[in-house]
Every structure is written in structure tokens, then in C-alpha cells.
Amino acid sequence: MDLVAVLVLSLSCILLLSLWRQRSGRGRLPPGPMPLPILGNILQIDAKNISKSLTNLSKVYGPVFTVYLGMRPTVVLHGYEAVKEALIDHGEVFSGRGSFPVSDRASKGLGIIFTTGSRWKVMRRFSVMTLRNLGMGKRSIEDRVQEEARCLVEELRKTESSPCDPTFLLGCAPCNVICSIVFHNRFDYKDKDFLNLMRKLNENVAILSSPWIQVYNNFPALIDYFPGSHKTFLKNYSDLNQHFLKKIKEHQESLDMNNPRDFIDCFLIKMEETEFTTEALINIVNDLYGAGTETTTSTLRYGLLLLMKHPEVIAKVQKEIDHVIGRHRSPCMKDKSNMPYTEAVLHEIQRYIDLVPTNLPHAVTCDIKFRNYFIPKGTTIITSLTSVLHDSKEFLNPKKFDPGHFLDESGKFKKSDYFMPFSTGKRICAGEGLARMELFLFLTTILQNFHLKSVVDPKDLDTTPVANGLVSVPPTYKLCFIPV
């Protein structure tokens, strides 16, 4: 038998073994499309819009189904009832973190976002408690956000009503809030180190949302042997970590055990305990810095774009600002309860943009029988937040931007259990309270001081995301900030 025949026979055996393994496991898992050997269902999923592909599959296989991303079975939960049942009713079991190979390779299982098990519980508990002690959700943090909002307004004034891309400036503001909590200092918007950090962060978010990363995550063996944007991501992540390590060493030299200044100091004081290592701290800081900046930045960018497309909404928000706040003092969180329309607009922006369409991957921490299906321990779970935020039973016109989705008949703000932009359950975003505060204060401060003028006819503005992977990345655009 010649070499070619041996290779063909070997490959055939591998393919048959792969198909058998996939089919043998499918009898216990929820139903789903038949996977191909090795490739799984990857050809049935559009890497440019995974969420839409999962919605189409749910129409065939129901709210709970299985897809194979490569050779790995993944259970998809689609719709409010299925997502709630898993993440809230069975929150502990579904609190594991599913595999995300590119990020796993970068963080080495440390930090908060991509870690799991007892390590995750220890780090999350510490981080949430420390952020609260440092003022998250309290007046002390509100003062910082208000200060940064005023700095942002001054930078926007410097554009002198000329067309500008707001991406960088809208990123600086929430980034500086996180820096003040983690490092106990903010940066000037022209600081070279700050500019470099922002560039790397923005680049990494774009990479994580690109189709190629979805391919690499499904076939992790490619990460080590093939070139691509993932190499840039890993390099940027490493560079960010080096910067954070430098900051940590500076803190160690000036640490006062009885007077912690910021998040890093609080962590250093705990360093004698097992999980509290320098490497863990570096990755937690990276998580806080990245997640705490990007979610608010993208929401603000998308929000301004949607508002320009709907000038009648801007007019109503500014009327409410004039009535409740006026023009001569900074907005504060106490104002929010008296501004139902503005609150509805903020909720509708987050609902409509669907920032993290398929959520971060979860995993079950033990075997579980879920809706008469058996899901083995460690199985990756995808929860479609799109299916919740765009549910037509809850939101009359889910594909239409309409603040009325969060207003009752008398114009009062109306809460919805379907509002899950920060996920829900055990893995809900640890910085949700800070993000809500930033969105309200930044947006109201901007609209208190400026009219937003589009450089094209508002009807021609395209709000379609340019990438729809991990994050829905808004398109670039320019606008003019016209002082009120």
C-alpha cells in the first residue's frame, strides 16, 4: 500500500470517528442540525452575524438546540423563557465560563471575565466588594463621573462645531473613570501613554468582533500555527499587561496598608492569600479596564448616532433637561427619577443596539437535566441576548428605535424583565451600576451643552453595525457639536 493510500485511509478513519463521536453524543443533547465531521455546523453559521444564524436555527429546532462549533457541542438558549430558566432559575449550574480560546490564551484563565470555578467566585466577590467600597453606585463615584463629563464637554467645545469623529473622545471619558478607580488618577486626553492604551484597546475590541476570530475560536489549534489578527490581539494584550505591571510596581513601592487609595492597593493588601497573585491582579485590571471602557464607549457612540437619526427624540430629551436640570448646573443621579423620557431613551438605546448579541459563553458546572435534555458538565452554553432584547411579544416593534417601548400610557418609565444588556444571573456585568451612571450623566451633560448636527441628511444615516461578533461595533461617522 503506497503512502497516498495510507493517508486517504487514515483521514477517512478520522472523519468517521469524528462523525460517530458527534452522533453518539447527540442522543442526549438537545436537537440541532447534523454536523459535518471536524467542521461541525460552522458552514451553517454566518461568522459575520452569528446571532442572526442562531435565530434562524431556532425557528427550526426550537428555543433549546445544539450546534457543533468545530467538534465541540454547544447548547444554544434562545428566547426570554429559556435564558431566564438557565441563568436565573438554575443560575449556579449555568455560572461556568465557556471556552473562548483566543482570550483564554491571553488571560491564562486569570482575571474575572474568562475565569471559572472557585477562582472566579473569589475574584468576583473581592472585585464587587472593593468597587462598592471605593464608591461604585455612591456619591463619591458620581463626583468623578460628573468631573469627567465636564472635561468631555470642554474637549468637545474645542472641536469648534467642526465635523469630527467622536470615537476617541467618547472613549476617553469612561476610560478615565476606570483609571481613577483602579489607578487613583486620570489622564489628560493628549497624554501619549493614554492615547496608546486607547488605541490598543479599540483595536482589540474590533479584532474580537471580527469573523476570523470566530473561526480561530472554533478551531483553536490554528491559533499557534497560523498568522492573523489574533496575533495582534495577543501582542496588544501583552503590552497592556506590561503597562499595568508597571503601575502595580509603583503602587507596591508607595503602599500604605492602612490607607488603600484604589483597587490595586486593596488587592495588594490581600496578596498573602492563595489566589491573590501579581499575575491575577494584572489580568483583573485588564478586564476592568477593557470591559469598563468599551461597553460604555460603544453605547455612547451608538447612542449619538441613533439620536441624530431621530432628531425628534433629541428635542424631547433636551426639553426634559431644560425642565428638570436647566442649563446652569451639572446633571446628577437624583435627576433621573424625574426624567422618565430620558431614562426610556437610554434603555431603548441599549435594547436596540444589542451590544453583546450572544453574550459571553457560559458553561454548566455539573451535569443537568434541562427541559428533558441531558447537558453534561462543562458543555458550552450560548445565551442569545438578541432574542430577549428584540422579542416582539415584549417590544411591539423590536427592529424600530422607539423609546415608547419603556413608557406606559401616562408617559411614566416602564421597567421590563426582558432588559438584559448586561446579561443576568450570577455572571451579570460586575460594573452594571457604574455603566448606568456613566450613560445617564455623560449623555445628559452632552445634550445639555450641545445640539448634535449630522453631516448628512439624518434619513441617510446607517445604523447597521460594521461587525457583529462578540460586540456589535457601530459604524464610524462624523457629527458637529453645536454649543447650545
Shape label: globular
Structural category is alpha+beta
* Strand residue content: 5-15%
In spatial order, strands of the major sheet run 1-2-7-4-3
Helix residue percentage: 40-55%
- C-alpha Rg (nearest Å): 24 Å
Number of helices: 17
Terminal-residue CA separation = 83 Å
Number of strands: 11
If you average the pLDDT, what whole number results? 91
For the biggest sheet, the summary is: 5 strands, mixed
Unreliable segments of 5+ consecutive residues: 4-8, 15-26
Order of helices and strands: HHEEHEHHHHHHHHHHHHEEEEHHEEEE
Helix and strand topology:
Layout: H1 3-26, H2 50-61, E1 64-69, E2 72-78, H3 80-89, E3 96-97, H4 101-107, H5 117-133, H6 139-157, H7 167-182, H8 192-208, H9 211-218, H10 222-225, H11 229-253, H12 263-269, H13 278-309, H14 311-324, H15 340-353, E4 362-363, E5 368-370, E6 373-375, E7 380-384, H16 385-389, H17 432-449, E8 450-454, E9 467-468, E10 472-473, E11 479-483
Parallel strand pairs: 2-7
Antiparallel strand pairs: 1-2, 3-4, 4-7, 5-6, 8-11, 9-10
Helix pairs in contact: 4-11, 6-7, 6-17, 7-13, 8-11, 11-13, 13-15, 13-17
Pfam family, one: p450
Keywords: Endoplasmic reticulum, Heme, Iron, Membrane, Metal-binding, Microsome, Monooxygenase, Oxidoreductase, Signal
Signal peptide: 1-27
